[in-house]
Amino acid sequence: MKPLIKITNIKRDFVLGNEIVYVLKGIDLEINKGEYVALMGPSGSGKSTLMNILGCLDTPTSGNYILNGKDVSQMSDNELAEIRNKEIGFVFQTFNLLPRTTALDNVALPMIYAGYSKSERRARATKVLKEVNLGDRMSFQPNQLSGGQRQRVAIARALVNKPSIILADEPTGNLDSKTSEEIMKLLKEIHDKGNTIIVVTHEEEIAAHANRIIRLRDGIIESDSITINN
After folding, report:
1. Burial of 135 (0-12, 13-18, 19+ CB in 10 A)
2. How far apart are the C-alpha atoms of 49 and 61, rounded to whole Å?
3. Containing H/E element for 214?
């Protein structure tokens, strides 16, 4: 079986003034469809840079990235934008919702770029909001929702285009511990339905929900371990 993600010798350098900062120093990584992976590492380890490359928000300085059979490491900005919309669902710490837009319209937004009709968008967005237990909050704007409900809207938006990967960056960073547990339970339910999830976190208790933990340090993979959990 071909891996969903295969990155080979990925390096990412940044030029700061007269200096070159080597952030990723040759990463090799494979992730299969249906895995639940936590990406960990201290500040400066390169985990955010790796996440940006995995999410096609950034391109590597060198190396190859094959996502779902496509070489995305050499794609143009427009091609990357299309891949991001179709293949990747993003969940951010700060939710990134449009403030004066209903939950339903926030969730339907990625489908506009994917070219779906209005009726298709409404039907699919309604279905996904019900799946995250927000069927009764569809007409609410973000400021009328709790932090946990906002993150559920963001998760519904990530799911709406049926992406290959859900990429969650510190998804519980702005939530209290009880709400964090609820969000992680929801992500587990999404994973149990066959979705591939990559969570970027610095919290051990969040990473413990994953089936595999990849730890970065100083731009290389320090460890890659399978976890046994519920």
Report:
1. exposed
2. 12
3. strand 212-217
Structure tokens at 132: 């995250």
DSSP code string of 66-124? EETTEE-TT--HHHHHHHHHHHEEEEETT----TTS-HHHHHHHHHHHTT--HHHHHHH
Cα distances (angstroms) measured from residue 101 to each of 37, 96, 109, 141, 156: 32, 12, 10, 6, 15
| Sheet architecture: strand order including 212-217 | 88-92, 165-169, 196-200, 36-40, 212-217, 220-226
Chain-centroid distance of CA 59 in Å reads 16
Question: Mind listing the pLDDT tens digit of every residue in the chain (230 residues)?
Answer: 789 999 999 999 999 999 999 999 999 999 999 999 999 999 889 999 999 999 999 999 999 999 999 999 888 999 999 999 989 999 998 889 999 999 999 999 999 988 899 999 999 999 999 999 999 999 999 999 999 999 999 999 999 999 999 999 999 988 999 999 999 999 999 999 999 999 999 889 999 999 999 999 999 999 999 987 65
- Contact between 107 and 129 under an 8 Å Cβ cutoff? The reply is yes
Q: Measure the CA–CA gap between 8 and 24, rounded to whole angstroms.
A: 12
Please name the amino acid found at residue 64.
N
**Contacting residues for 79 by C-beta, under 8 A, at least 6 apart:** 72
| Cα of 65 vs its chain's centroid, Å | 16
